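Batch 3, record 17
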Amino acid sequence: MTEKRTIYLDHSASTPVDERVIQAMLPYFNRFYGNASGLHHQARASARAMDQARRQVAGVLGCQPREVVFTGCGTESDNLAIRGAALAAQLAGRGRHLITSPVEHHAVRHTIDQLCHDFGFEQTVVPVDRYGMVDPSDVARAIRPDTVLISIMYANNEVGTVQPVAEIGALAHERGVVFHTDAVQAGGFLDLKVEPLQVDLLALSGHKFYAPKGVGVLFVRHGLPLVPQQTGGGHEFNRRAGTENIPYVVGLAAALELAQAARSEENRRLSALRERLVEGVLASVSGAQLTGHPWQRLPGHASFVIPGVDAGGLLMHLDMAGVCASSGSACATGMPEPSPVLLAMGIDPQLALGALRLTLGRGTTDADVDTVLGILPGIVESLRAAVPVYAPVV
Ligand code: PLP
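Prediction for the assembled complex:
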């Protein structure tokens, strides 16, 4: 029996670790294993590896190495950025007002909600349009004398929309407000230079660009006051205590450089595959709608809502056919809830339950797109046939 090929279309959730990244990491597990804080030659080897990795990341971000803070994941980077900057502003008596959008990842939304619920902050959630896009003029209007932080993501995980981050950064700086962007989904695809983006805090996560899970980065503009979320030793310039995870940091730096070096060619390839996938799905699945911006979106990101199906059933049937995909709704619990991101974009709650996200990556081929286009319409039809209440869209 031949084994069915896995078609992995969930790169926004996580990516496989690049073989070159694994090779870069290997020596730091059992050959150079010293604690980077020590004074002997083993420790110095680890410290050199950290310095080198920091310089590599700083090169990609166009910042000073000391502005690069390594963390345990993207969620931690967002937490440190938002809670750290907000609490520092509160301690300095500068205000307690935060601005964000309704399409942020939980790592941002729940951190801001907690600041409001438990620490006396207030938030303004600016609207998004039907593509999930923030209008910078809404952000400008929301700024108050006591606004201390704006947090708007670079690219959305559910619908792929790329936000006008540089414009928001410019207006934040004009008004003297700290600007954080969650660039976790952008890391492998978009320009991360912090000066043109005008960001003060930028979060990345290794496992979205072919480094392992469990390592992240936070760019922190030099001199920005930040209350550490983890206290202990003086690691990471007193921003994040804890013995450094040298192999993972080395892996993240290698992966980021590799992804950024290949990105213009790879983005072209992925955009062409995505376009074919989107056009094929819209043409062959009746009633399917693209979610997110039609072109201001991540190159490998295709997302839809499909009437008359529930995402859980759809994902299960795709999985049985060898296709790994995902949706924006929390269907894993058995009590499906429409995604707040899709609701904020004005999508009908019932329709939002049929969300499908197909995110392409380095291993995705033309043949994979053909296979998905070949099986998806049949799966949708069989699911609709099993739910007689579905009235076909005319
Ligand atoms: N922010 C965004 C936009 C994400 O997509 C994710 C993960 O999916 C995160 C933050 C959290 O990153 P991590 O999985 O490294 O904690």
